[in-house]
Each structure stands twice: as C-alpha cells, then as structure tokens.
Design goal:
heterodimer, A: 105 residues, mainly alpha, 5 helices, flat, B: 234 residues
C-alpha cells in the first residue's frame, strides 16, 4: 500500500517539476506577462492544507464523504485505511484524544 | 490510486515528528544547494533548471516552515503541569523535546522564517532597477527568478515578498495560537480579510483572471476554514 502512495508522491513531484520547467521555457517566449493561475492554485492548496491542519476533524469529514461514495461503488474503503486514518472515522478529535491519553498516564 | 491518496495522511503520520522535521529542513537546503550549484556553473542551458529549482523552493516553503514552527509551538497549556505542542498535542515540551526537536526546529525557523524573507527582501531592494524589466536578459540569477515574477505587473513584483510573508504569518498563527482559543479564528479571518482587501486594491497580477482567482482563493480559504470549524463542532 505504501509503495503506491510513494509512487503517487514521486509522480506528482515529477509532474510539478516538469510543469515548472515547461513554464520557465514558456516565459522566454512570452514578452508579455504570463498567467499566474497555476502557482495561485498550488499555493491555494498548500494554504488550504495548512488551514485545515488546525482542525483534525476535517479528515473524518472527508473520509465520511468518500466512504459514502465508495460504498455505492461496492468496496470497503475503511478496510484499506491505516489505523491513524480509521481513528478519524470515529470522529475523535486528535487533540481531545491526546488529552485523554495524557489524563490516563 | 484513489484509496492511496486518501490513506496518505495515515502514511505520513508513520513518520515521527523528528523525521518530518529533518525532512523539512533537508528538502529546502538540498534545493538551495542545487540553486547555488546552478548559479555558480552559469551555463545558459541550466537557466530553465535554475528557474524550476527556484519555483520548487518556493512551493516547499510553506510545508517546511509550518513543520518548523509547529515544533516550537508549545502553547497547549491545558495541563497545568506540562505544556504540549499545539498541533501535535501528544508531544510534551519536556527534556526529550529539547534534546531532539528544539535544535532542528530553531535552525529551520531561522533559515526559512527569518533568513529567507530578509534575504529575498534585500535582494529585491538590491536589484530594484532590474526587477521591473519585462525581458529576462538580466543577470543569470534574475533570469532564473524571472518566470516566478513574470505573472506580476512589472512595478508590482515585490508582491512576491508579500505572498511569502502571508504564508509565514498563516503558518505561525496556526502553529502558535492554541486551537481551542477564540483568538485563532479571529486572527485567521483578520489575516485573510486583510490579504483580500490588499489584493483588491493592489491587483498585482498582469492578467485580470489571475487577480480574480487570487481573490476567490482567499475567500475560499475563509469559507473552507469555517466549514471545517463547524464540522468539528457539530
């Protein structure tokens, strides 16, 4: 499972690097300013992930939505997820969970 | 493929905080070293490679600096006996944290949070006459940076620094302000709203569509944040 994720990350990295290289070559050709849509989109996704990282329950929301969609497709998404991800399925806030564990110690 | 993308959060969490911190420190350092090699070599055919490396460095900025600041954000003080990291509340700010996390986090935050903005600001000031040029026939380094600046209006290319500082402020706010504090949504709203107002006044991009998308992106961030906040409260 992990090698697929690794492969996706590598392919994504190669795609972004290739796109940036192509964009650099294109900047040579254009005398006028070029579109900044792609960098804006990439930075937006980064900022979005930073913003939602402050609320761990978002992961559960995403997995809930996808689980609903995947059940319609006829396979169990939850069985393929790692334990950390399945915790999110139970809608446990990771911050609350950490406090709970600390109190137990 | 679809499932692997979803499980990525689980896989990433397999890395310890120390490993993630060193990865966040080494990635920009490696890219910066490659940029340095390209600049020193000064081969014309390396110009596109240099440009690609600088763009990758730009995109690796926020994730890296966020990990560094998060490793310093001991603001979870709900336990009166011990403070914990705000974004990773299972990590206590104790002797082990000081021994393993503090040094790389300080180095990372100094490099990316202090040195990078100051260095870029100084470079933009130093080359302020060259930056507004529309043609990339300047120095080798400027030619490498040019594709990152080409989307901005010639006299608004310093906005790149504003975007960098905005990302830094966002990462700092999220990592330092306790997630349970009412100050967090207020500061995020303030930052995004001020950014949107400034974007609307300055309109730094050449193309109308880019300005519009940047503005929409800021408001989408705001809406996304409150959606996430509400979903976690419900």
């Amino acid at each position: 499972m992990r090698w697929i994720v690794g492969l996706v990350y590598v392919l994504g990295g190669v795609f972004i690097a290739g796109f940036l290289y192509w964009r650099s070559m294109r900047a040579d050709a254009s005398k006028r300013g070029q579109s900044a849509l792609a960098p804006i989109l990439l930075l937006h996704l980064q900022q979005l992930s930073a913003v939602i990282s402050s609320q761990a329950a978002f992961a559960s929301w995403v997995v809930d939505v996808v689980s609903t969609a995947s059940s319609a497709a006829g396979f169990s998404l939850q069985s393929l997820l790692a334990i950390e991800c399945t915790l999110a399925l139970t809608c446990i806030d990771v911050h609350e969970l950490a406090c709970f564990i600390r109190r137990g110690q | 493929m679809f499932t692997s993308l979803l499980a990525s959060s689980g896989v990433v969490s397999d890395f310890s905080l120390v490993q993630r911190l060193w990865l966040a420190l080494l990635s920009p350092c490696l890219l910066a070293f490659c940029v340095l090699l390209s600049v020193v070599s000064r081969r014309p055919r390396n110009r596109h490679l240099l440009s690609m490396l600088i763009s990758l460095l730009d995109f690796s900025y926020l994730p890296s600096v966020q990990i560094g600041i998060a490793a310093l954000g001991c603001s979870d003080s709900r336990d009166p006996e011990q403070r914990y990291l705000n974004l990773t509340p299972w990590q206590a700010c104790d002797a082990e944290w000081r021994a393993t996390l503090l040094f790389p986090a300080l180095v990372l935050v100094f490099l990316l949070g202090v040195l990078a903005p100051v260095g870029i600001g100084a470079a933009m000031w130093r080359y302020r006459a060259e930056i507004p040029r529309n043609r990339n026939d300047g120095s080798f380094l400027f030619a490498g940076v040019f594709p990152s600046l080409n989307g901005f209006k010639p006299h608004r290319r310093w906005w790149l620094l504003v975007l960098l500082l905005r990302r830094l402020l966002l990462a700092t706010t999220i990592a330092i302000v306790p997630y349970y504090s009412a100050l967090l949504p207020l500061l995020i709203v303030l930052l995004l709203q001020l950014s949107a107002v400034a974007q609307q006044f300055v309109r730094p991009f050449v193309q109308y569509s880019s300005n519009l998308v940047e503005l929409a992106s800021l408001y989408l961030l705001l809406v996304s944040y409150f959606t996430v906040r509400l979903s976690s409260c419900s």
